[in-house]
Amino acid sequence: MGKKLGAWLFALGGLMLCHALVEAGEPIRIGAIFSVTGPASFLGEPERNTAKMLEEDLNKAGGLLGRKVEVIVYDDESDTTKAVTAVDRLVKRDRVVAVVGPSTSGSSLAILPKIEEAQIPLLSCAAAKKIADPVKKWVFKTPQSDSLAVGKIFEHARKSGIGKLAILTASDAFGAAGREELKGLAPQAGISVVADEVFGPKDTDMTAQLTRVKGTDAQAIVVWGTNPGPAVIARNRVQLKITTPLYMSHGVASNKFIELAGPENAEGILLPVGRIMVEGQIPANHPQKSVLSSYIKEYERRFKQPVSAFGGHAWDAVMLLRQAIRSAKSAEPAAIRDALEKIRGFQGTAGAFTFTPEDHAGLTEDAFVMVRISKGSWEMLR
Q: 3-class DSSP state for residue 82?
């Protein structure tokens, strides 16, 4: 009897030791590059907050594959060169299994060669279509592409009887990508671009560009950029008493834009946004409703600030990785990549993601709704 009890205790001790080794094993390390500081901090700060919030949530729920999850965040300070340095560190020193971010299109495009060389999955949090089109084996993205946003704007413009547009685009990667889509898609949408102006992302006055636009027969203006430039244009437009309708890109889809422009200057501006910005206005039976409601509730409780579409892009990226790791039953980069490519109908904050070997962006135009800024808030157009 004593021998049997001893053997049983020995076996039990072995099982406990194995469990302890699993618990104490290497964490699954996910890299993240966000613009937490610098001009693009309105993108990167909510992304960083969201990623670290999810790290805590995942570990409270037992981690992934019995291992803890560690999200290693580097701040690229809104600087493309620093994003490249950060991805080098994540790959070579931190040995991450995947990377989330960067926040901006310029930084995302800059790190693509290193991601492909390292052969680890990237889930970019930037919108430029060319990040994932043409398809690159290891590269995916979570924001709605600029081409989908352009399509939504053109659809609204045509229904409003608008056929002539002036465009003002930032001279950075996001603005250049938007300009390319605006000019490329205009003819098939029956739109004429009658003015084509460019502004610097750090410019503090755009009255010269707007004065030239005012002298054309443009029926509406489309601005493509991220803060603060678009907010400056919104203020200058009011100062010049231009009443032509103004469209913005999804690159300003946060309350920060209204704050920078001033509610009185942002009044009436139109733009395509993800449903996260108007969660309270979407039906209770919409497939995204529960995802949006729970994310918004947790984020705003934790950080005492409103959510933005940009934090949502980080939520989608981390949760897509969670699903891929679970589906693959592996945290090996190649297995994660293959599992990402098989995801179908994943309800995220940006929309329903379906990745395929031919599509690493995963969203359709349905991921957008058109909104009007009204009295300092977002009004969904029906």
A: helix
Whether 278 is covered by a domain: the verdict is: no
Six-digit token string for 119: 């052969």
Q: Which two three-digit tokens encode residue 63?
A: 């981690």
Q: Quote the tokens at residue 290.
A: 């529960």
pTM score? 0.88
Are the C-beta atoms of 130 and 327 separated by less than 8 Å?
Answer: no
Residue 155 burial class via C-beta count within 10 angstroms: exposed 0-12, middle 13-18, buried 19 and up = middle
Q: Compute the distance between CA of residue 208 and CA of residue 319 in angstroms, rounded to an integer.
A: 45
Query: pLDDT tens across 19-55, in order?
Result: 443 344 799 999 999 999 999 999 999 999 999 999 9
Together in a domain, 46 and 83: yes
Nearest to 181 by CA among 222, 229, 120: 222
Q: Please name the residue that has the structure tokens 């001033």.
A: 262
207 with 323, same domain?
A: no
Q: Retrieve residue 280's tokens.
A: 């309270």
Residue 50 burial (CB count, 10 A): 33
Do 63 and 100 belong to one domain? yes
**Residue 202 pLDDT level (bands cut at 50, 70, 90):** confident
Q: Is residue 5 part of a domain?
A: no
For residue 46, give both structure tokens: 């909510």
Contacts of 31 (CB under 8 A, 6+ apart): 71, 72, 74, 87, 90, 91, 94, 96, 98, 99, 100
Q: 115 with 194, same domain?
A: no
Contact indicator for 99, 31 with CB cutoff of 8 Å: yes
Structural domain span for residue 201:
147-273
Tokens representing 324? 């891929």
Q: Cis ω on the peptide bond leading into residue 27 (within 30° of 0)?
A: no
Answer for the pair 201, 230: CB distance below 8 angstroms, yes or no: no
For residue 236, the domain's CATH number is 3.40.50.2300
Give residue 158's Cα distance to chain centre: 27
Q: With CA atoms as reference, report the closest residue to 142 among 299, 314, 330, 382.
A: 314
* Closest CA relative to residue 212, chosen from 204, 221, 224: 221
- How many structural domains is the chain composed of? 2
- Mean pLDDT to the nearest integer, 157-178: 96
How far, in Å, CA of 270 to CA of 13, rounded?
65
- What residues form DSSP beta bridges with 68? none
